[in-house]
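Weekly sync notes, structure subgroup
Attendees: PM, AL, DS (notes)

Item 1: joint prediction request from the bench team. They want all three components modeled as one assembly rather than separately. Inputs as received:
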Amino acid sequence: MSAIFIFSNGDKNRFLRVSFTLILFLSSFSLFPQKKSGTTNVFPNVHLKHIVLPHETFTTIGQLYGIRGEDIAEYNNLEYYDEEVIPKYVTIPLSKQNFSKEKRVFSNELLVPLYYIRGNAKTLFRLKKNGPNKMVRRVNGRILLAGYLHTTKVDQKVFQIASPGTPEPTAIVGYSKRKDTVSNTKQKDKFSLASNQQTTPVATVIKNKANFLSKGAPLITRLPEKKEAFAEVIEPQPRSVSRVQKVLFLVKVQLSISIFLVALIFLYTAIRNRKEILNAKLNGSIRKVLIDEILGGNSFSGRINKALSTSLFLKKQLSKKANRQFIIDEIINGRKSIKGEVGDNFLKLYLALNLDKDSANKLKSKNWNNVVKGIQELAIMEQNHKMTEIFREINSKNEFIRMEAQSALLRLSGFGGLWFLNVLNYPISEWQQVKLLSILATSPVSDIPDLRLLLDSPNQSLVIFTLKLIGLFKQRTMHNEVVKALGNKSEAIRFFAVKCLKEIHNEYTASVLIRRFATETRRNKIAIVKVIGEIGDQGQTDFLLDVLSLGDDTFRILAATALSKQGIKGNYLLEEYCDKIGGQYSEILLHTKSAV
Amino acid sequence: MVMLIAEDDPLISMTLETFFTKEGYKVISTNNGREAMLKIEEHLPDIILTDVMMPFYSGLEIIAKIKSGFNKKIIVVVLSAMGQESAVKEAFELGADDYVTKPFSLAELSLRVKRLVKVRGRNTVLQLDEKF
Amino acid sequence: MMIWFEILAGILTDILYFYCACMLVFYVLFAMISIGETLRNYKKNNSTDYSLLATSEHGPSVSIIAPGYNEGVGIIDNVRSLLAMYYSNLEIIIVNDGSTDKSLQKLIIAYELYKVDFFVEKVLPAKQVRGVYKSINPVYKKLIVVDKENGGKADALNAAINIASKDYIVAIDVDCILEQDALLKIIKPLIDYPKVRVIASGGVVRIANSCVVEDGKLVKVNLPKNYLARVQTLEYLRSFLLGRMAWTRLNGLLLISGAFGAFDKEIVIKCGGYNTNTVGEDMELIVRMRRYMVEKNEPHCVKYIPDPLCWTEAPSTYKILGRQRNRWMRGTIETLLAHKIICFNKRYGLMGFVSYPYWFFFEMLGPAVEFIGFIIFLSATILGIIKWSFFFSMLLFMISFGCMYSAFAILMEVLSYHQYKRPSDILKLLLVAITEPFLFHPFMVWSSIRGITDYFRNKKSWGEMTRSGFGTDISELKPGILNAHYRKV
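Output from the run, pasted for the record:
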């Protein structure tokens, strides 16, 4: 049962990740109880934003808005200090002292009407650039008079004085100079605004969201205002929304994600079902055509072009990537199972269809999965000219590419390919060992390169693999080296050395192993007894009888089994011993006999 | 000659089917052990080509069934990826007539089958002679 | 007085918020890690030729051990499908754990078994073995049937390990239906990591109710018709696709389902085999093996593969399901309390700081917290401390999160293994996701709480209960679902 992902590109995956991160954020934040917001703000959702000019202190700003400097500092979570204000802007609270909804004036106060606009802040911002008149027409939100700001002092530099109809560009420019951030075009805007002040005050209001207008406040008629960039009304903040609303918002988010997921689920179900049905039909037909090509006849290579031109079907299928891969897979599968002339036809077809180009292109892929596939395909199709490219990956950082390159090397050059062991920097996993051994087992027999040096390698898995090779291909000349490996520090290496000796044993092997027995670990002792059973002659019966008398069931059984394999003498001794002791031993004897 | 092919890889199965149909056999193709067992009883083939590892019943069970009484005359050729001695031995001990290791050559397989048929034919004739 | 109560309620709700937040964070993080790991595994699968293990003699040797109690109905087919498994170096050990039905006789007839003289080593403690059977027929030479006195699942597994002669053991439930290549896939991770010792590996378990099974093989996958089984399908999807893989990635896995898992026999024996005194023997074994490896200072890991390899019958009545969950909960408590030394212990690394606490706080205490939290919330609402609107919105929040999570799991299933192909099946699964929080979930919480109370009540008389083993209530159960008592998730 093979699994299929449609994750061919990572996009969907990333989307899911992003969406989940989002939910994670939202849900974790909302669950914590919130701090209460605001203190003395009578008009909770609205405050003014003041862009700080050089040399302004909290006190001077406070004076502009009829409020104490300390209050501003506190409202902004800042510490009050009597020096230049550091932040680029501060928010000004609208409290009872400096704000009222009614037009109530004390004699020493100036009134500045404040407006704000409901609507999208972004829209406003964008429109702001387009000049006043356009804005009035285009803004959807309604303009509302929010109330009046009470102030005692009007800073002549800040609240620009512009007599009706006679703008004073110099003053504005002068002020703009101090504000570095204001760009040239903006200056022009301001200028025109100021000049239009008398006739279209509303425009100014919109432009700044909140504005100081001269017209609405009788006491400051001489204050046509030029507060433009200095103050704005902040739209209602979500911070005072109730917890219930917050949670419900999250519920909505989750439900909409769920609905989206459901849509995706059905979409993909449909896509995959369709694909599967199509593929089931198509794959059958492709297979048929392939087999026809393969079994077509004797003059295959001459016929292939003709066949291809007639076989429009195959050609058509080749244009699709997925089908191409399917054809490659099938050809590889065929090549793996069938040899001889028909098997060669698979190879010819592979080349005739230019599929080797596909495989070669995969080597360049960034995706390790494709590289592995490419190497695999090229190796099975015996594309020797790609060897160098493949062998470069022998010590690749990616374990999968590395392993595939090693397999490819052995597949292409058989035992000769074993040279790579000398330059190997990484351990070989057991799986890889099995794979390499099974490739070697099917490759034509030839001389095995000298493996002597490898046995001294510090790479444990490499030594083990070498021992397996020696055992499997019966390198009897290596006997002494393997015996030396019996003294290795690593238990696992010693274990495989014992196993290896079984395959390449000579008349001394058994006695060497017996000498090792006493100092070995339990696992290796078991291995030794087993091997003695296989290779021993009647000279080892004493040893086996000793083992049989150990107080350990595992060793008793092993020794009994081993003895039973030592010809007549062994069997006789075993029976004699078991009869003598009786009890459990007679059971062991029966066990041994029934196993044989 | 009726030949039954039991092989779970569709490509190999189809290749065998096409190939042996061209060779003049009447081919029945099955994809798993159970289907093969049913078809064997239904069609009584003369030759069976079987894979070893298949769902439901392994190829070995098919051999065992044929050779332990169902119809010993049916020729059973095993196609297997397992090349080790023990596996080959096991199959022959169960009564397989031949064992071909994958990758195999179709031409060779065909020759082996022909030879088996010939030998079997001779034996059958001999047996018949004995009866009369 | 009221003020104190209010403060207390405030603190409690804050703790609850925090708990929920942690849980959600865990869930979401794990889902994301799982996706990454599943994808990686998919890529790896794509270029791996698993048949290597089936054909090569150099592959690791494996003993399948399958304990069964009164499995007579399906046992012949199940054993047959095990025999047809792709693997070269294999033996199959079926343990008849003192069945009172005719399962042994059936096996003897079907597979031509005879009793052999077998000396059983007592490597692990287990009940007396009455006889070991092998087949006369060489086709079945892989098969070993062990007849022993009833001792419960853990005991049966230990007996099988005593007899097993191969290097790795694969423990399965006899009634499980395995995919054809299940063995190849579960064994590969064991030998795939040269730098660490992989002590165990597990596979995904899926629900086989209403699926078409012929001769012990799954022929067609269907969505269960039974509501409970269907909910469990969804539950398993969530747990396996969105949770388990993340644990593998972090190497913090503490559980491999008892229905299908492979183990390194050497380590299993060294740490004493299955514990017969717990109902959660599968989890207990993994935790003990990991502890053993840590104490030996050997780098190790436990691997998990996301491919659906094993299909099992899920309980389909409230009664049996409740009992199953009850047992799982008791097993979890037993395991966690027995190994409490791991908790926040530097030595155990991630296992001590993430896995164990996760299991302790969310898997073990989860249902209790949920239950108590709900009650607190409800009473606070009734007393007027919390507004009803808030209560309901929170409830809605949790439910919608659950739905979203389920939908996500289903999407992953569609994208990855796509077992349920019909859109109507998918729709049914989605409906289940919506109804689950109202019908299934409260029941599950309740069963788990029963498990907790049972644990504390029956602590002492435990041994006897295990001894009755598989067959606590055989008379009410259909054969084939007995093993459902054991943990499959």
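Discussion: Strands of chain B lie at 2-6, 26-30, 47-51, 75-80, 98-101, 104-105.
Action: AL to compare against the crosslinking data before next sync.
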